Amino acid sequence: MYINKICIDKFRNYEKLDLDFSKNINIIFGNNGKGKTNILEAIYICAITKSYRTSKDNECIKFGDDYCNIDCEFEDKNIKTNIQVYIDNNGKKQIKENGIKITKYTDYIGKFPVVMFSPDDMDIVKGSPKNRRKFLDILISQISKKYVVVLSEYKKTINLKNNLLKLNRNQIDINYLKILNEKLAKQIVEIVHKRKEFTELLWINAKEIQKNISKGNESLNFVYQTEFKDMDFEKVLKTLNDCIDNDILKKSSTKGIGHDDIIIYVNDTEVAKYGSQGQNRTALLSMKIGEFELLKTQKENVPLILLDDVFSELDNERINFLLDYIKKYQVFITTTTVENIKMDNVKFFDIEKIRTCEKK
To answer: CA 139 to CA 297: how far, in whole Å?
Structure first.
């Protein structure tokens, strides 16, 4: 699978932009603040249905305009698919596939798998647990439609429960609270099972990458942590119901998958707390390539690779390893300079020339 072309209209800092891509390496280079990342963001939205930079769709609209539009042409086995994303200032988003409106994003996510790697991704290794949960949820969602549905249902149910708990104690219907706990218990069992399964699958791929990058000097391990480890439905439900009094006191659910985490170890040491900067970067690189390998084996389409200014985060050894690894696939790279990039089958896009053509 690859992208032939993209047309961006009133998106971020672009009035209008049309680009034709290579099936191999595409490098967008130039000074910061000119819109390189915005092109990758537009591709990502067409694949995942939402931005990786903001939770508010209308922030993607060019300042002063009422809407933005992205047209992207994917091709797989000589079959072309046009994806159109429309967003207006009211936050309304509409996605069409070959002119037909997509009504269920759960049936769409993962059709065009993608792996995104940006400097902010260091927070996956070093940041809070929510960053690792988000990383894992996006990975699983591209593979399992059922997971997308269950995760969405869980979020709705936990919101209903939390809104109920905000009421005064004498206003809370305990029977309804227990019904919500039953729903949550079923959802938690499924989500925890999938998160545990895919943490292990990711580790199987990532540990080999870590070993290769470090030339055998570093071993990588992931430990999935959850409050519901090895619990079946009955045990999860009992745990939730046992916390009802405390939930009412705190006016919020005190148990849930919002506390799940992946602890990352390098040579049996928790890398976020005690690892060197180089070990943290290698762990992230291993996770991202492991993500790509997992998607590649689980999906019919080979994932797109989006690398946003990652060269600023990696040393020459890791850059060379990454470039050698990705050279067989369609890749989109943003960078400030191309002086040290020595690769074949590369199509370069000078951001200044792109913007000049845009203004014409």
So the answer is: 13
DSSP letters spanning 203-217: HHHHHHHHHHHTTTS
For the record, the structure tokens of 142 come out as 């591209």
Q: What is the pLDDT of residues 284-342, one digit of tens each?
A: 999 999 999 999 999 988 999 999 988 887 888 888 888 889 989 999 999 998 876 77
Q: What single letter denotes the amino acid at residue 97? A: E
Does this model's pTM top 0.85? My answer is yes
Instruction: Give the residue among 223, 230, 233 at the shortest CA–CA distance from 199.
Output: 223
Torsion of CA 283, 122, 152, 202, to 10 degrees: -10
Query: Which residue type occupies 22?
Result: S
Give residue-wise pLDDT tens across range 167-218: 999 999 999 999 999 999 999 999 999 999 999 999 999 999 999 998 899 9
Distances (CA, A) of 242 to 175, 178, 238, 246, 248: 14, 10, 6, 8, 12
Closest Cα to residue 264, out of 56, 89, 123?
A: 123
Question: Which residues are bridge partners to 9 per DSSP?
Answer: 16, 69
